[in-house]
Specification:
265 residues, alpha/beta, Rossmann fold, 7-stranded mixed β-sheet, 3-stranded mixed β-sheet, 8 helices, globular
Length: 265
Amino acid sequence: MDLFSKTRKLKENWDLFCCLNRLNTSLFDRVKIVFIFFYFRFSKYFRFNFKVPIFIFFNKKKLGLYISAFSDLGILVDVFVKNEYSLIPETRPEIIFDIGANVGFSALYFSSLFPNAMIYCFEPNPSTFEVLKENTKSFPNIQIFNEGVGRSSIELPFYISSSSVSCSFRQRSPKQSFIQIKLRSLDDILKQERISQISICKFDVEGFEDNVLSGLSSRDNVKIFIGEIHLDICEKPELWFDNYFRGLKIKKSYFSSARYLIQAY
């Protein structure tokens, strides 16, 4: 790694550390978060063999959750500090889909804001799914599924990375290990779960976005889409997504030239 890359990485870690200190939590949990940050930052291992419980306060609610990887800290900041999903217009959703739910922080965010909504979480990574299960077990309005969402209901290779946020149905390197994972299309999920319309469809699927959206035969079955587009690993260009959401109100927030958050409704 050259000097520029090292400097950029240090800045990213410092920014993350500063953002973590903006979490609304107790002094004891803040100390735990600082310990977790430095342990993962200087450890060659990405995961503990145990999960660290912390409590945060959000929307006048106390949320208990588990941290088991350095990447969890980044998601925690994106969801509860940067409020990545606050772009959603004022609404009273009944059904929320969280596709690429990871460890469940976005599901907890939605549940805190919309306690009467039913939330369906889809996470294909088996080890990440176990943390998702722990984080959502006390929420009766959250259902979780250890499967992917795609163009059709089949099995596909799911490529494993050292960080859970980089695991994907898109292969990043020739020698990357993989496991076979079951997928369902959005059309099949709606039919099998007896759902007529999705109020909010959130997706964060590391380059598999076009595949997820292609499994929905009628865009009218979703009121609000919000998700990350990863053009650097996705098979489709930005124009494909512009055409897919044509006719809807679209908002984009760019993280870089290759990645952005899109909201369409």
